[in-house]
């Protein structure tokens, strides 16, 4: 047997072993078939930022992202439609957060960073535990907690999340429910902010060729960050596609 042939056979055997190892690995579990889209309002005095939202009911607060650094969970907030002196005074005495910092001014809005205080009631971690996909999150317009939209893998996970909230005294109000694999109901679970954005984008020619308005201009017109416009557009269009094409 020549050296070349021997090398080729060893290489072939190695590839075969690698292929077998790949087959032995567990496949990625899927929970993406169907599910329940739930639009909820969550309220409790000890819920994250609850006291501030109650004291500054006109403010619109949208968490942009959060991360854990040095054992602290930091949340970055996009805030608009607020009397900012009143809002910042509320942040300073809010027991659910610590170390509030003004980071940026974006149009008529502002971006803050806060740390979640120990003992504060949160809900995003529990939603993640149940496998819920966060579609939208912002403060309710009347200052009564958070308006949130999740896609739960099934009704059991929605019930589990509701039980978690009940155990902590968190009020859960269901504004809308949709079975996401139900092709007959025809309901598209867009939030009010997603609807406002799509309507403005349509009326201002964002979907025209060439475009009549950019994402930056949409953000300025709506008083939100460009990242908020981009994320909300993507989620809203995704919901429309899911409802009409699936």
From TrEMBL:
Keyword Transcription: yes
Organism annotation: Halobiforma nitratireducens JCM 10879
Protein name, entry field: Bacterio-opsin activator HTH domain-containing protein
Positions of region (Disordered): 1-27
InterPro entries: BAT_GAF/HTH-assoc (IPR031803), Cro/C1-type_HTH (IPR001387), HTH_bacterioopsin (IPR007050), RNA_pol_sigma_r3/r4-like (IPR013324), WH-like_DNA-bd_sf (IPR036388)
Biased composition (Basic and acidic residues): 7-27
Pfam families the UniProt entry points to: BAT (PF15915), HTH_10 (PF04967)
PROSITE patterns to which the protein is assigned, alphabetical: HTH_CROC1
Database matches in PANTHER family: DIMETHYL SULFOXIDE REDUCTASE TRANSCRIPTIONAL ACTIVATOR (PTHR34236)
Stretches assigned to the HTH cro/C1-type domain: 211-231
Keyword field: Transcription, Transcription regulation
